[in-house]
Structure formats: structure tokens, C-alpha cells
């Protein structure tokens, strides 16, 4: 069969689908990846065929006219996502949920991940190439439209916790309970308008499918997810860090416990910067009797005068190769970094970004006894604000290194992941589901 992957132009989201794409290709299926022009080179470097759709989009959302505001500014990516990640029942009134999806459909889902140019090009290519199955990144809502337009089955692939599926369930339930005069449906209007553009009818039986797929491929451990009444197909998270060379020093046995500090690619490449001071974190960790490996670029190093002797800084190193030699990792809570650490059974400290699911990841990891969550209420745009916070961070690292339970629980999670079907194991099920759902 032919399988089209649709993902908007963020490398971290693309890297999440690479193992599944290669599993299908290795099983003899034709595979193509459609995305915006800025990551076409990244796609082809993985050996996968690519097609450019839409226009280049600057994902670095900032509020200042000159584009110099920090990522924590009022109209940032974080703020666009904030409504969807709300989980407190008392806050999830109809007005709140309605307002969240009104803004999300008109701004975030419509424009920030490709907009009309990507949608038009993706549908045109899908109608030409005629895929049997479209697998779309959970933020790439052009995917299900293209699938409907060409008669393909379609599956959503998650990149983390399913906040969209959870809140859309609340939305659908509360919408049905509204009196007729209050039954505004911005999600349905948005979906119908996009489908009508290509001559495809819409009715409310398609609403959930267009938001959450005919089924969902989920690489997230079940103990991290919400219990949702949706068709989920679990798959093991396999690390993919991009095509890169591995430095020789990675394979040298460390003389002291090796700890990795990484704040991910998304903050520095897409979101305009880190949420807190890299220098203060690095200096606090360097005071410990460890070997600290920090993956930082020149911008993140700019505020550092000197590097302590026990710190090795590299712009990038594949975590899949580095983490087997690490005793702990400190990171921002991004799904790719978290998944690498879970796959290698490495205890974690999460100093959370506040873009999507970082805090919930940290809470669930702490519940499992495999990591700790930094007190994110004490983190600000100015960093770890005082010596007490730096002291807390050092204490947490000492706990991870000194208490065997963290390593034991991380190893237990790794064993659970190994028992989850791999992308290779999932291929036959995808073939069956495609045959069932394809129009």
C-alpha cells in the first residue's frame, strides 16, 4: 500500500514519525513524507522520499513588532496552547471550552501549522499520488482533510499527551447539552469549510474523526495518558535523533557519574529561547562531583564567562548514543528527550518548559519514582531565581545518583516499553485498519 505521512515543518515532530515510516517502508510499502519546505532537507537526509507542500512558516511566535521579545511573551506559542492544556474540571465550562477551540481553530490549527497553502498543496498531491493511508502528526490538521479528499484511511500520530483529544471530548459532550440557541460549533464550521473547499461533504458524524483520526497511533506510555474513549493503537517509542556522527568521547567510560543537561532543539530553534537561565543551571550542576555533558549552542553559552573543568559542552550529540553512559539527565520535558531517557532507563529531572505536556510528564514520572519535577512555580524568565533554587536542583541530582530506587524504577519502565509493540510489529495491524477504513 501507499502511505503518506503529513507533518508540519518542525523537525522534532518529523523525527517522531521516522521509525514508523521506515518500518512501513522496510515491510515493502511505498512511503512519502509531506511537509513544509524548511524541513524537506531533513526528511531526505533520513532516506525517506519528501514532497514540499505549502510555504515556509516562521514558527517563532513573538509579540514585538521587531521580533525581539522573549518566547514567554503574551502571544507566544505557549499561550496559544495554554487553553487546550487546561485540566481543572472547575475551569472547563462551556464558555471556556468554546473559547479555546474558537481561538485554536481560527489561529493555531489554521495558521501556525501551515494554513491554507499547506492544505491546498497536500490535497493536490494526495489526489495525484493516491495513498491508501495518511498518517498525520497530531497538530497537522491538513492530514485528515487530504485523506477525505482522496479516499484514504487516516490515522493520527501523537507526539505526547493527548490534550486535544481530551478537551475535544469535553467540547463534544457540552455542545450536545447546549440549548439550540447556544449551540455554536466553531470546530464543525472550521472542518466543514475546509472540506467544502475540495468538494467534500461534512456532517457531525465526521467531527471526532477529523480531530482525532479514524484511529490514533500512540507512542506515549499508557500511564502518562488520559483515559479517553478513542481507538488507540500503542506503539513503542523508538529514539530517532537525526542523521549525525557520534563523537568518540561518547563511548569512553566516564570517570565520574555522567549527567546530561539538555534543553532540547525546539526552544532554541523554533520558540526563540529557553524559559530560564541556562548559565545558572549549568553552574549549579557543575558544583557537583559529576561529569556534566551539556548540549548547548552558542546563543545559550553567550552568558557564560568560563566553563568549569568537569563540564563538556557540545552543540548536539545524539541522546540515543549518549544516554547509555549517563546516570541521570536534566531536561525541559520535551517528548523526544523524555522518550530517549525512558528507552534507556535513565532517571530524569524535568525543569519544565510550559508549552504542552512538560509539567504533566514530570508529575507522572515522579509518581512512578523514576524522576523528579523541578518546582516550576519557582522558575521564571529570569531563571533559577536564587541560591535556594540552585541548592534544590543539586539536592535532586544527589537523590537521583544516591537512591537506588530511581534507577530501579527507570529500568522497570524500560522493560514495560520493550513489551510494547514496535513499529515493525504494528505494520500488519495498520494494513488491516487501512483495509477497513479506506473509502
UniProtKB/TrEMBL annotation:
InterPro entries: EryCIII-like_C (IPR010610), EryCIII-like_N (IPR048284), Glycosyl_450act (IPR030953), Glycosyltransferase_28 (IPR050426), UDP_glucos_trans (IPR002213). CDD domains: GT1_Gtf-like. Belongs to the glycosyltransferase 28 family. Residues 22-264 form the Erythromycin biosynthesis protein CIII-like N-terminal domain. NCBIfam families: glycosyl_450act. The keyword Ribonucleoprotein does not apply. This is Activator-dependent family glycosyltransferase. It comes from the Bacteria. The lineage of its organism: Bacteria, Bacillati, Actinomycetota, Actinomycetes, Kitasatosporales. Residues 280-433 form the Erythromycin biosynthesis protein CIII-like C-terminal domain. Keywords: Antibiotic biosynthesis, Glycosyltransferase, Transferase.
Amino acid at each position: 500500500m501507499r502511505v503518506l505521512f503529513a507533518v508540519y515543518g518542525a523537525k522534532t515532530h518529523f523525527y517522531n514519525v521516522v521509525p514508523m515510516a521506515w518500518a512501513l517502508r522496510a515491510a515493502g510499502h511505498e512511503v512519502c513524507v509531506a511537509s513544509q519546505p524548511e524541513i524537506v532537507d531533513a526528511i531526505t537526509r533520513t532516506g525517506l522520499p519528501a514532497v514540499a507542500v505549502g510555504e515556509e512558516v516562521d514558527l517563532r511566535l513573538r509579540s514585538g513588532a521587531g521580533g525581539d521579545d522573549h518566547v514567554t511573551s503574551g502571544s507566544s506559542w505557549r499561550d496559544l496552547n495554554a487553553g487546550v492544556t487546561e485540566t481543572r474540571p472547575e475551569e472547563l465550562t462551556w464558555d471556556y471550552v468554546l473559547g479555546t477551540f474558537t481561538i485554536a481553530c481560527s489561529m493555531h490549527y489554521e495558521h501556525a501549522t501551515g494554513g491554507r497553502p499547506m492544505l491546498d498543496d497536500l490535497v493536490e498531491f494526495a489526489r495525484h499520488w493516491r495513498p491508501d493511508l495518511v498518517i498525520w502528526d497530531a497538530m497537522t490538521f491538513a492530514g485528515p482533510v487530504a485523506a477525505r479528499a482522496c479516499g484514504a484511511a487516516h490515522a493520527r500520530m501523537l507526539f505526547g499527551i493527548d490534550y486535544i483529544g481530551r478537551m475535544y471530548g469535553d467540547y463534544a459532550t457540552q455542545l450536545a447539552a447546549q440549548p439550540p440557541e447556544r449551540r455554536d460549533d466553531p470546530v464543525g464550521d472550521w472542518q466543514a469549510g475546509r472540506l467544502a473547499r475540495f468538494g467534500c461533504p461534512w456532517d457531525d458524524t465526521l467531527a471526532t474523526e477529523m480531530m482525532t483520526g479514524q484511529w490514533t497511533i500512540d507512542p506515549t506510555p499508557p500511564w502518562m495518558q488520559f483515559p479517553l474513549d478513542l481507538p488507540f493503537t500503542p506503539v513503542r517509542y523508538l529514539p530517532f535523533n537525526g542523521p549525525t556522527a557520534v563523537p568518540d568521547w561518547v563511548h569512553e567510560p566516564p570517570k565520574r557519574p555522567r549527567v546530561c543537561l539538555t534543553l532540547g532543539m525546539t526552544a532554541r530553534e523554533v520558540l526563540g529561547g529557553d524559559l530560564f537561565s541556562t548559565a545558572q543551571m549549568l553552574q549549579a550542576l557543575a558544583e557537583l562531583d559529576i561529569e556534566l555533558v551539556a548540549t548547548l549552542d552558542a546563543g545559550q553559552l553567550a552568558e557564560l564567562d568560563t566553563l568549569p573543568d568537569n563540564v563538556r559542552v557540545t552543540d548536539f550529540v545524539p541522546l540515543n548514543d549518549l544516554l547509555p553512559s549517563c546516570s541521570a539527565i536534566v531536561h525541559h520535558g520535551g517528548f523526544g528527550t523524555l522518550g530517549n531517557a525512558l528507552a534507556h532507563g535513565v532517571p530524569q529531572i524535568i525543569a519544565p518548559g510550559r508549552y504542552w505536556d512538560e509539567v504533566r510528564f514530570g508529575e507522572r514520572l515522579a509518581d512512578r519514582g523514576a524522576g523528579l519535577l523541578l518546582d516550576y512555580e519557582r522558575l521564571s524568565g529570569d531563571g533559577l531565581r536564587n541560591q535556594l533554587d540552585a541548592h534544590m536542583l543539586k539536592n535532586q541530582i544527589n537523590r537521583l545518583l544516591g537512591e537506588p530506587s530511581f534507577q530501579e524504577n527507570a529500568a522497570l519502565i524500560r522493560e514495560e516499553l520493550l513489551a510494547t509493540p514496535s513499529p515493525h510489529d504494528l505494520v500488519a495491524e495498520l494494513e488491516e485498519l487501512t483495509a477497513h477504513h479506506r473509502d
